[in-house]
């Protein structure tokens, strides 16, 4: 006699998400009250109005959003909730903006263990706290189970560019300000987010001590901006890694870029895991690093400010911008003294990394 | 010989979404440039920076978000894109806020026809235009195909509460201001969104002329607020319908509510479709209606302002708040003169309705 498939049995709504959790009735209210709103409690969220009233905001208002589909939902060093908070905070941070409030939209598959949801929402609360921001408003939907992995998290963030901040009222000058000779500062070891997620997915976790670097970067960016350095541009090398970011910059500035392989911080664990997975660390996603482009004569000031911050202790100047070119390339000067062209990764290699 | 299953053949990335469209490489850039950003073009979005700089905003800033998982993606009268824009605009509108900017996060399944994406993004652009708002920032992810139906859309919105608006600096007074005797104003015919979606899903579309009422409500809300009426509270009766909204209000105010069935506008098509589907129109979702609670002596002014607006032409006073009670109920006075208790719908009935 065949076994009754697991999905035929009615799941306990105290143990696992069921469709009725998303229907807007009593189960929805209990789910939100006991597993979401209570963990995120703050003055903006608690009234549970249709939208959160942030009050008057003094400065230039920035808005950003990110959708997260990472698999697995939890990985060494983080989870989809921490990733969502940090990703959105960091999109604001690299503009020179300080985050004020987040929105949080959860799309949950039926069957997700409530205990998993609890851990992820607690992680969202902790990451928001660490980043100095609150979840001011949200929405939760429940969809049928079809094996996509449990949940997606979409955050939007409102941040403020201070009119008297070091970068001026317009935020960072942007890539248009980059000049030949400018230095490329990297705030620490690369590839640890992508490799930690891939290792967890491939059941390699036991072989490596790698942990995702996912972290809110507002403090680090503000520290570099507050230094005496002439900072032209800041971005976080996420999907596409350092290679993708530099390829974009070369294309946008029409300037060549030289990178010193020996100067790029990569841990031994990351190097070995990347080899095992057949990946180039330069193309692997980071979630807690910045690349700053600074004038050559002030690179030391920027580097000192970076290293003085806990999240930038391993910072290094890893390259420089070269001359204008009709075919601007990113070139890696290898440890052996050779040169190879650094290319934007082909996308399909690393789905569900963020 | 068995046929080769369709999913084994490599889809044409100009015809259908493939995983590489989400990988951050050349295909991603082409997808965004040719099918998303070009259709939404505006001064805030076009720089494609990590976050959009909205500039200084004068007033109280409101933030809201919604995730949309409606099935099918397109239905008579609307689609998931129009629904997302209107849903978020309306969350701001019912606070008395005027929308300034939206964020747009798309999670697309591989296999979605590019032509479907095109229609939905064009619908987003048209709805934003209609609502007087722009999509200022966005994110797009691609996930494996697993039959969940093509895509989800999550929007967040920033709006402004005018300090000199009719509702004062704090927006609407909220449910705490509601008093016994207050009138319940409904802006038009109910149940048309939910029934149109259900009809499309059940292949009943050919039997009915029903279309979703999905529309941006800022203008209608502002018109009612600008009238001489004493408006205590405004909300749009979406998921859970009119019944769900009134049940919430009875619970929050601890006041009974009486509704006149004969006064509630329901089209013949909606009544017949609801009967066919075994649904009570009172519990079915709307996406283009408001419920306003106004003082009894100013209800006529509110009604006149509502009816003068194209989206409120069928508006009616449908009920009134009664006395305080330990067990506050919503009671329907039926056409036959009987009474029945109106209950919040049980959630599972209508999944994927928004």
3D architecture notes:
The structure is a homodimer of 354-residue chains. In chain A, β13 and β14 form a beta hairpin. Chain A is α+β, with helices and mostly antiparallel strands and 354 residues long. In chain A, α2 runs parallel beside α5 and α5 runs antiparallel to α8. In chain A, the strands form 3 sheets. Chain A has a 7-stranded mixed beta sheet with strand order 9-11-8-12-10-13-14. In chain A, strands 2-7-5-6 form a 4-stranded mixed beta sheet, covered by helices on one side. Helix content of chain A is 28%, strand content 24%. Chains A and B meet through α1, β1, β2, α2 and β5 of A and α1, β1, β2, α2 and β5 of B.
